[in-house]
């Protein structure tokens, strides 16, 4: 699925739409170059989860920020991550695979956003929703959505239905 955004507010609106299709436990990977709008999209997802968008910024220097809304929002920014093993100290498994740690099958009260997921290399989750943000010009971005796993395919199907 693809969506074209012509402004920051439109990118946030797409994020809010995506958030409306989340039920907790999802992992969303945001890829694209600097300035592509990854954090703007994260702000929109946060708004959709009843979190003040102004509270959400790039957690570049701390790798992770957690916000409370409809669900917790676990916002990773891995731009400064040089070696995937550096994330072990965070206990990343508890964020990426919470059902295994809290003993509940397939449910979690958090949504995880990962900016710069390519830095994870071999630690990248097995299933996820990926949004690749592509700069078309100063104001336009193409958002390309792809799903890995049945849960994420259902989210995209739901977003497609909402569009019609």
Task: Provide a descriptive summary of the structure in words.
The chain has one domain (25-159): Rossmann fold, CATH 3.40.50. It has helices spanning 8-19, 38-48, 92-96, 98-102, 150-163; strands at residues 2-5, 27-31, 64-68, 72-77, 110-115, 128-135, 141-148. Strands 1-7-6-2-5-4-3 form a 7-stranded mixed β-sheet. It is of the alpha/beta class. α1 packs across α2. β3 (64-68) and β4 form a beta hairpin.
Provide keyphrases for this structure:
7 strands, 29% helix, 7-stranded mixed sheet, 5 helices, Rossmann fold, alpha/beta
Please render the helix and strand layout as text:
Layout: E1 2-5, H1 8-19, E2 27-31, H2 38-48, E3 64-68, E4 72-77, H3 92-96, H4 98-102, E5 110-115, E6 128-135, E7 141-148, H5 150-163
Parallel strand pairs: 2-5, 2-6, 4-5
Antiparallel strand pairs: 1-7, 3-4, 6-7
What's this model, at a glance?
This protein has five helices and seven strands; from the N terminus they run βαβαββααβββα.
CATH homologous superfamily designation: P-loop containing nucleotide triphosphate hydrolases
What is the CATH C level class, in words? Alpha Beta
Number of strands: 7
Rg of Cα set: 15 Å
Could you give the order of the helices and strands? Answer: EHEHEEHHEEEH
